[in-house]
Amino acid sequence: MSKMPFSILSTIKCSSGKNIIVKKYQQHVTNCRVRPIQNQPVQSRNLQVGDVVIEPNHHHIPNPNPNPRTTPHYIQDDFQNRKQKYYWCKELLPGSKIKYKWNKKLSPPMPAANVSEMLALPWVQIKNSEFPIKQTWFRLQLEKKRIPWQQGAETLSVNKESFLMTTLNMYKEINWHKEVKVHIDGDKVLDAGGLLREWANLIMKEIVHPESGMFQLADCEDVSYKINCEADTDEHIIDCFKLLGIVVGKCIFERIPLNIYFDRSIIKHIIGQSIFLEDIYYYDRQLYQSWDFLVNNKFEADDISEFFVIYRKSKGDYYELKKGGQTIQLDMDNCQEYVNLCIDYYTNISVKPFLTAFLSTLYSIIPKQLLSLLEPLELEMILYGTPFIDINDWKDNTDYKGAYYRTHQTIQWFWEILEQLDQFNLAKFLQFCTGSTRTPVEGFRKLESNRGNCSKFCIESVPYTKANPYPKAHTCFNRLELPMYETREEIESYLKAVIQADMDGQFGME
């Protein structure tokens, strides 16, 4: 691989007269590569979001799986009372900066009688509304595109050994506005919604896997993924990006929270918003710090030898950010233009074929105009659901069948054990029960089966036998068959066994 024809470090003389050693702004491009997935460091301090400080209930355990976030990204100020209604709102700060925060919703949810009136509201009025109204209007518009299940369902037949390839061979033949049932070749499992959730989760994991070369970890605090600008542009890779658009679109359509997180530039592309320097903080912190230094500090033209070009490692050449860029030197007058062109190159031009493929299929399911209603954080809430699993909310929205009831001894042991789990293991157990690591924005009361039907989490009693002592999950209906254990030690042992098991590829029972 060709090396850069200049040194890694250069000295810049600031207006203060001090010499500051800074990295060359193209160093990141030179060293850019698909990095192996790394565990997130243990956080021993309190988590701080805005003005809210949350005291962790348990010791943080490093996450061996990078896909579920171990650190909540949007946190309400009262986890123990999810019955209170909150919404994201934006606050304009001095300097035209925007801050997002949770606000308590003062007005009650819009009654069903006002649905027709809401649908009649103009798009501009909805655009300027708060998130709860936007979300309701957004869902109503999507339901108008749904083809009723009475008109038939589509079947997606996949093979466990070649999961991605069999999906690629079939996805173009399916009408994704219809009910889609996933069928596993050679398996008797019937899909009533749970298999679709698990299928979407596995497809996304395969696509963002480092070996695919399509994505790489964003250099930011959270575990999120950005498009690899040096990915192959062959037909197979482009087809995979089209499939990714189908998966994301179907998950939005069916209210299935994603288990993979995209960097901010992808989020803003989806809703059709421009990308600014502050968004690069969620894309690559090194680039952000370099460009932020350029636009917020004074320097002389002789202090830095930089031109309007970007070195492309995969091609071994230079890309001109503008015509004649090799002869245009960076200075105080054009540094903002330089940064803007760099942002456009990294987040748009260099990944254009991949973005085009991804967005074309996504918009075929969810129209671009509907998505453009949302702000970045609002889309993330719709994509990812609620990041914090609230045990009290889970309890309050659980039904019981058979011999079980809320105060049954086995049920009390069950909740006591779950209360001792950290968020990572709670997410794994939730995935075992429902096929997803997160709940919808509205919490556990809005868990659904297929066809958009409300399907609360349910615990059903079954006899305990030594031949089959483990809990059994029916992800299609969010139902857990829990044997009637005689001791707390027994239930704790078998619950932890299913949590520690690798559940990828273990499809629901119904």
Task: Briefly characterize the structure.
Keywords: Transferase, Ubl conjugation pathway. With 510 residues, the protein is an alpha/beta fold.
How would you describe what is shown here?
Pathway: Protein modification; protein ubiquitination. One of its GO terms (biological process) is ubiquitin-dependent protein catabolic process. One of its GO terms (molecular function) is ubiquitin protein ligase activity. It is an enzyme of class 2 (transferase). By secondary structure, this protein is of the alpha/beta class. Among the domains are: 93 residues, Hect, E3 ligase catalytic domain, CATH 3.30.2160.10; 110 residues, Hect, E3 ligase catalytic fold, CATH 3.30.2410.10. The chain is built from 18 helices and 16 strands. It has a four-stranded mixed β-sheet with strand order 13-14-16-15. Strands 1-2 form a two-stranded antiparallel ribbon. The protein has a two-stranded antiparallel sheet with strand order 3-4. A hairpin with a 3-residue loop joins β5 and β6. The radius of gyration is 25 Å and the shape is elongated. The relative contact order is 0.12. The N terminus and C terminus are likely disordered.
